[in-house]
Write a structure and sequence with these properties.
Elements: H1 5-15, E1 21-24, H2 29-38, H3 45-57, E2 65-70, H4 72-75, H5 85-91, E3 95-99, E4 104-106, E5 114-116, H6 122-131, E6 136-143, H7 152-171, E7 175-182, H8 190-210, E8 219-222, H9 237-251, E9 258-261, H10 268-281, E10 289-293, H11 295-305, H12 312-330, H13 337-341
Parallel strand pairs: 1-2, 1-10, 2-3, 3-6, 6-7, 7-8, 8-9, 9-10
Antiparallel strand pairs: 4-5
Helix pairs in contact: 7-8, 8-9, 9-10, 10-11, 10-12, 11-12
The chain binds 1,3-dihydroxyacetonephosphate.
Length: 342
């Protein structure tokens, strides 16, 4: 057990406190450029800072958000009034987190598949991030569905890396959020997504166990079981909720303090509806089910902001609305009518 056991336990519990979830604002430089391209603004350091400032200082967000995942550049930046972002979060009772994988790269010998890099030097990087205020970290592994893939080798290599990362985090007093993301971009059915997610989670928890990672101090971040975007038949909300919960019950130890979902390209409203459907129908699961959305929380706010300081107030309102909807979805108390009132 890590000498930080008590703190890890407290952090992990707080991350998934009742009615709270995580806002992921850890887009890497290429990803934030893509998001800024969509609103036709340039991805400069100043624009990235201004946008993250809006997300971090949105007043009242702390009712719904327990933590935010930052990118390396962001954890070193400050608010317009000069407060370092991690301090600005801590002052609101929101925990700073940090993305520590160095991205999903093409996996040699495995066309179409990815392996996440970033283990070299990770112990030293984690020590620095902790000093900067980080209390949890995220590592994302990408599993791609296609003809003959994912391979066992890709699932195994990514699970192995996730376990190595998680062990280093716990040693450093940082809660690992382990994120194996099965992508939803292909034409596969929800049943295939179920199979791939199940295989991936079995391998992940096997590796975590073999590498002495404490389940009690680990948060799982995962995709829901959904149809691929290009699949002609799309699973409905109830099916997504039922199959996702079934998959988790079949693979995730009860001692994990919480599970959070990524949105992965779902629309904002659908990501909320799915989470709500799970929490409304399943009241006695071993773990809280919450959110760690990037796009599904930010998309509307990003469009409203559009890079203009005069839009910050309106964009903040839009952001808080999505945060509130997802907070209610954690309790199974969201209703689509809330969108009309917004
Ligand atoms: P999305 O919710 O946009 O999938 O992002 C969450 C995330 O952090 C992916 O790693």
């Amino acid at each position: 057990m890590s000498k930080f056991a008590a703190q890890l336990e407290e952090t992990a519990k707080a991350m998934v406190a009742k009615g709270k979830g995580i806002l992921a604002i850890d887009e890497s430089s290429p990803t934030i450029k893509k998001r800024f391209d969509s609103i036709k603004i340039e991805s400069t350091e100043a624009n990235r800072r201004a946008y993250r400032d809006l997300l971090i200082t949105a007043r009242g967000g702390n009712q719904y958000i327990s933590g935010m995942i930052l990118f390396d550049e962001t954890i070193r930046q400050s608010t317009s009034s000069g407060v370092p972002f991690p301090k600005a979060l801590i002052d609101q009772g929101i925990m700073p987190g940090i993305k520590v994988d160095a991205g999903a790269k093409d996996m040699a010998g495995h066309p179409g598949e990815k392996i996440s890099e970033g283990l070299d030097g990770l112990r030293e990087r984690l020590a620095e991030y902790r000093q900067l205020g980080a209390r949890f970290a995220k590592w994302r592994a990408v599993i791609t569905i296609g003809a003959g893939i994912p391979s066992a080798a890709c699932i195994e290599a990514n699970a192995h890396a996730l376990a190595r990362y998680a062990a280093l985090c716990q040693e450093a007093g940082i809660v690992p959020m382990v994120e194996p993301e099965t992508l939803m971009d292909a034409d596969n059915t929800a049943a295939t997504c179920y199979d791939v997610t199940e295989r991936t989670l079995h391998e992940l928890f096997n590796q975590l166990y073999r590498q002495n990672v404490a389940m009690e101090h680990t948060i799982l971040k995962v995709n829901m079981v959904v149809s691929g975007k290009k699949c002609p038949t799309q699973a409905g909300v109830k099916e997504v909720a039922d199959q996702t919960v079934r998959c988790l019950l079949n693979t995730v130890p009860a001692s994990i303090p919480g599970i959070v979902f990524l949105s992965g390209g779902q629309s904002s409203a659908l990501a909320t509806e799915h989470l709500n459907a799970m929490n409304a129908a399943y009241k006695h699961l071993p773990w809280p089910l919450s959110f760690s959305y990037g796009r599904a929380l930010q998309e509307d706010a990003l469009k409203t902001w559009a890079g203009k300081s005069e839009n910050v107030e309106a964009a903040t309102r839009v952001l808080l609305h999505r945060e509130k909807c997802n907070s209610l979805a954690c309790l199974g108390k969201y209703s689509a009518d809330m969108e009309k009132a917004a």
